[in-house]
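Reopening this one. Same input as before:
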Amino acid sequence: MIAIARQKTSLEIDMEKVKVAREALGTKTMTETVDAALDAILEREAGRKLIEILDTPGMLELDPEVMKGAWRIGGRRFSS
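Same output, byte for byte:
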């Protein structure tokens, strides 16, 4: 099991935003809502970084030697 670092804290939070976020995220508690909102931000950032990588010229030029045996096309192995 992975240990998750958690910390109790005291924050001033706009409860109207929490209400809207809770409805949008389908969460029940404030802790679930904040965790889900943070997860959504992390996912968005990961997606942004992936798009940046894929948009970098040359990133999709794969080395056939590295990819040898990694892909299957129509039941056959990828070959260069």
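So the earlier flakiness isn't reproducible anymore. For the record, DSSP finds three helices and two strands in the chain.
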